[in-house]
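DM between two lab members

TW: hey, do you still have the Non-structural maintenance of chromosomes element 1 homolog entry open?
JB: yeah, one sec
JB: this one, 231 aa:
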Amino acid sequence: TVMAAQMTDAHRRFLQVLMSNGITEGSEARKLHQHCCETDKVYYAHDKLDDFISTINSHLQPLFMQIRKGISEDNGRAHYAVVNLAETEVTKMASDYTEMELELFRKTMDLIILSENGFASSTDILNLADQLKTKKMKKKEAEQVLKVFVEDKWLSEKNGEYTLHTRCIIEMEQYILSNYQDVARKCNICHSLAIQSQVCESCGIGMHLPCVRKYFRGQTEPRCPKCNEFW
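TW: and the structure you got?
JB:
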């Protein structure tokens, strides 16, 4: 077996920042890579971020953790998050939230994943709040909890519509794919989980909006990559 490259202080610093951020945008991660190498006087190559990360990952493996790369569904930009592989489903969140809050989160996730476009309106979510099994939640209280989920980067919100934050998608991809087998879609272009997607009316495949834009760029008439129907 190939010996894993050594972890240096630069790698440790990078991991620490990534963990405290929860999620880091690609351009920020590249800046951080340079900063860590320069601060700790470690050889820096601007095009070697992935190698740098895989060194960290080989040392995280025995701890059942991994830095994963994912794509923002809004703009198609790369993001990095530290994922705990040992904790399935929402257990990672269990240390931070009450059982009642977690139930609201699960129900919100249901709404988002079962929706057509990957969004759930605050009205629909708040209507669920007083049907919780754990304990009914008042609307005011539920609004507060949703706000915290947005601050903690599990949900993101636009004009009263909620969707899963990129961090949540990266961390929970496996959970979502195994728990929503019939409805969870993978993007036909990038093959990662697609929550917000456009769906082909004929054959039902889904694609992320940024992937759709890239895929159809320069084509005179957009046709479905699977069934060739007009998109």
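TW: got it. The CA atoms of residues 121 and 161 lie 4 Å apart. DSSP finds nine helices and ten strands in the chain.
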